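Re: your question from the hallway

Yes, I did run it. Sequences:
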Amino acid sequence: MPEGRPRVGLFVTCLVDMMRPSVGFAAVKLLESAGCSVEVPQAQTCCGQPAYNSGDRADTRALAEQTIKAFQGFDYVVAPSGSCAAMIKEHYPTLFDTDPEWKDRAEDLAGRTWELVSFLTDLRGMTAVDSRFAGKVTYHDSCSGLRELGIQAQPRQLLQTIPGVELTEMVERDVCCGFGGTFCVKYADISNKIVTAKTDHILASGADTLLAGDLGCLMNMAGKLQRRGAAIEVRHVAEVLADMTDQPAIGQPARRRA
Amino acid sequence: MQSTSRDFKDNARAALANQTLQKAMKHVKTGFIDKRAKARDRLPEFDDLRDASRDIKDHTLANLDFYLERYEEKVIASGGQVHWAPTAEDARKTVLDICRRVDARVVTKGKSMISEEIALNQAMEEAGLDVVETDLGEYIIQLRKEPPSHIIAPAVHLTKEQVEADFRHHHRELPPERPLSEPLQLVAEARQMLRRRFLEADVGITGANFLVAETGTSIIVTNEGNGDLTQTLPRVHIVVASLEKVVPNLEDVSTILRVLARSATGQEFSSYTTFSTGPRRPDDPDGPEEYHVILLDNGRSNMLGGQFQDMLRCIRCGACMNHCPVYHAVGGHAYGWVYPGPMGAVLTPNLIGVDEAGHLPNASTFCGRCEAVCPMRIPLPKMMRHWREREFERHLSPTAVRAGLAVWAFFARRPKLYHVAMGLQARLLGYFGRASGRFDALPFARGWTKHRDFPAPEGRTFQQLWAEKQSGKAPR
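Structure:
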């Protein structure tokens, strides 16, 4: 580990950038409280998964090269998403099998890249957070983070150090929510069936707050819960860990100014 | 079998609306998964055995010609015959020729996916043969004239009420007032109906879970004992199996057997694991007079050395579909051909073409649960992605998808322009969505808003806010 304050480049992710910047600021706060200095390269956009999972190798590779260049020189690259982090960590190196120079650079980046919560616990040794959040919380394990990066215990460990949090697990917590990137619009009816089952389990858990580590899954589940008229609040886990929950929950109206 | 994979979306929609099917599918979602998890937890070396099994198949596939030739030699040495069938047509013709030569009238069958793949029943029935499926699930779907919906549980899409109705309809010779609502009563009735057919059969056809190069043995793994009666009672036993079923020796079989049943049904071992080596010998008390193996290629040798070779490790346990949220949602018939679920999404385009089966590798969320449970560690999502790449290269992917992707990529590859565009979009959607916090309809996201609300963005992008914050911090 580098001496002193490691320099972390925040990979914001396209969804957090566009939809919910407060998750990005929560990530910055957590990283700084873990002793890191955080920078946000402007030359980043998206990790390339929409192209990659649609079979478009040329655009995937172009975006990978763009990301690799944007994050040169940082000690670590951290993303508030298991899916985007896994894209960089697990998939970028496979894009350059015929190009040793870029493959080296991709592997170098992969070795420095982390998902936010596991970075805090596994690399920075964070064991507790300081948050006043109170609620009965259920946590959805997003697929890429869970199965490609092994993230399951880490967010729960940190959540359990918040005095006001009561964790109540749903059944099939590790089963896909039906988002799947473009899948949810290409196969909308199947996606709907899967997210209906998922939201059944969320509601049966008795929780008042649903958390997860990936905004795509969260938007899918929040959208379905709200379509069903459920009052449960949906947030990215970083907001709760950073004690930054002043923003309305995902899909909730802006609070009126007093 | 005629494929309807092109109609996957319509098939899926019909399946989602079919309440009886949805009721039947609930059992897949719970039963198989819990049982596999328990079986795995009871065996600490389970994951090591998965590695070993993968390595055995990789070695075999790297030396497939060698092991197949050895296997053939051993079958011949034990008095059997091997018929090489490059295509489904060749395989069907060979079976029919044998049946004709031995003057067969009744043919019993053990469960075989290869038989489904080559549409053997149809060919035999057209040739005037009386064909009887003897696996309970296969027997039921034969009565219903349906294809299997699962590779190890062919009738898993049915409820027991449907099976009762089928039995009452087809078994007219039995008393109409008999009780038939319990699974055990259904099983007993099927057994009663089948027993006579076993004894009438002239030819018995089975598949094979393994072909052993060292000994020339074919092995079937079953739970009902029907396979044993199928292959020992008739005068002729025909094994239909694909090339990649071969393994070097019995030691290898023992290793893979330890992960097979656990992955499939959660059993430590299936009720019957039956080894067949050649026809009846002079001193044997029973067994067939003739033993034939039909070795089917049907496109598999094209997979060797390419992006899809790993798929040839598959041992047809069904764990991938048992754990697949898409399979749970739509069942096996929606996939439109013989092999459903994740293994079908990879294998089917190899066998009938990606033009025909292009939907299957696309209809996946890439949740990765299939790969996580595959006993042979087949990278199923990766190979589905390879199919998507081929479709993209050949311009087979839908025009709307390609156009949307092109616009998105144009911006995503130009960060400065991208940030301006995202800033405008966030502002616009944030402005209109602010009051309610979400949209219940969006013209460019109908696929999303048909079923769920779309959350409104906060109104500014992270990059904009971050830049402001940084300039605020800068020295004046």
